[in-house]
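Q: Hand in one record:
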Amino acid sequence: MKKQIQSSSTTTKKLTLAIADATVTVKKPTVVFVLGGPGSGKGTQCANIVEHFGYTHLSAGDLLRAEIKSGSENGTMIQNMIKEGKIVPSEVTIKLLQKAMEESGNDKFLIDGFPRNEENRAAFEAVTKIEPEFVLFFDCSEEEMERRILNRNQGREDDNVETIRKRFKVFLESSLPVVQYYEAKGKVRKIDAAKPVAEVFDAVKAVFTPKDEKVKHYSCTIL
């Protein structure tokens, strides 16, 4: 009987250790928030990062537009809010982002155009228990962003001067405080997005390239 108890105790300990090991090996995904005003070139640069660094690009705007196209009640509500230049409720966007992250099979994500305000930010961290690795902020003047949007002619419903200016206003009032919050934590990587696409990506590459690789590259250049 004593041997049985000891055997049972040993098995329990082994199971506990196995569960502890499994818990330790569960890796949280790496998340980079990509922020910048409408027309700052976020989408183009995200495509480059995906190609060169193996991230999955999740555009909050694209996920919301896909929901609109689905014709759901949720989609109609989102459409009305976007028309008015308002920000969609956090729980709606977070739910769409979580679903996309789970279905991707990847563990590195660029979350583009989110969080759009402090409430978004706090809700994302509270719901997902994930803090971003850093925030990639594309800094660009309002004049340049407006020129780009009007020239891109993507046929989007929110690509007209009045709505564009509403979006600029929302970005300045709501999204900049998010950038400032992470800046205070040393987590913002600011990129001059007014430069040509190739030059902007050179600056982006410097942010994503590990320090040891930069040192190796520099050594090779000297040699």
